[in-house]
Target: DEAD-box ATP-dependent RNA helicase CshB
Amino acid sequence: MSKFTDYQFKPFLREAIGRLGFEQPTPIQKEMIPLILKGANAIGQAHTGTGKSHSFLIPILQRLDETKDELQAVITAPTRELAMQLYEELNKMIENTMIRSSILIGGTDKQRSIDKLKSNPHIVVGTPGRIRDLAENGALAIHTASILVIDEADLAFDMGFIEDIDQFASKMPTNLEMYVFSATIPEKLKPFLSKYMDSPVHVQIGNKKPLTEGMQYSLVPVRSMDRKKKLLHVLHAINPYLAIVFTNTKQNADEIANYLANHGIKAGRIHGDLSPRERTRMMKQIRDLEYQYIVATDLAARGIDIPGVSHVINYELPDDLEFFIHRVGRTARAGLEGIAITMYEPSEDDKIVQIEKMGIPFIHEDVKNGEWIEVKERNARKKRVKEVDELDRKAVSYVRKPDKVKPGYKKKMTKEIEKFKKRERRLKRKNGK
Model:
């Protein structure tokens, strides 16, 4: 199917898809929607920003039976923010229908969740721990739901939620359909998948996230300057709609946010030490555009969708370089342009080389007097030394020592070598190399 209008969706779904402005399915949607419509177990492997949420929401809603007064589908997300985002997208699609939905996440009033479940929702979205809790105390009639979606499965595994999912999945029907979505499929996740999925269809959209159109990757040397001071120079040289500064630890995130505040830059912060109430308030402030800058750990790269990010700044390179892709994927979304700025020191050159091998085309820049300037590539000197060495070897092999030497032959040979090298350089310039 090349267009959404080619599918025989229910009228409310066709209206919702039109309202959302969707015309053509993304690659993951094109592959997954038909599989879920026919009830085939499947694994969808794709990165954030590829449209995977709607690749399961649309076909599940097509299959829900509003006339049945029972739970039919469960969708899990590893963080409260992701669950809330999915729930919001779900509710946009079921306006003016009789479909009942519930959100089940930690950090909220448990009794209120229990009360809402008395109306028997057709579909629930939630975090694994809260779903398990409500299923075990009998508030959630999970035994009637024949569809289970696990979103961001690798993150769920990293956060230790697979055991929770296993506990409530075992109470679901024997003919359970499972749909797993993940950027990567860790080896340790496979035993869980094989327990519930018999020969699933594995849909993989690109081995690596494709380079985003309209994306610029700037590499900025820290050199001898204090790293925080360099960050300040970078921030003063950009005028972002919204910028995320990524750090590797919660302590660094707080330290940077405080440092920026002391220098007149108000910055929000997102990391694992914020309470549920603080995180909810922070996300509201961010969406209300109270901040132009956010300092965050990698939780924000995977667990939160922040709209309107124009710049991503890697204050430090992530320990797991896969997170570099997740970080820069926060910008240049929905057809917009984005800039990813990465600060680095010479000691991090090996990491930069590995990132370049992932397909990232860095441009080398620096900030001088508040202006962006192009600088020599970090390995320009190495390349120059290598080129000179190669030219010297070539010249020496070309200008051979004469069989019979005469006085002054060394001087003559040196002159011939320099002449050869000059000719080679001239040819190289002429050919534009």
User: Anything to note?
Assistant: The chain is about 40% helix and 15% strand. Residues 381-430 form one domain. Confidence is low (pLDDT under 50) at residues 381-386.
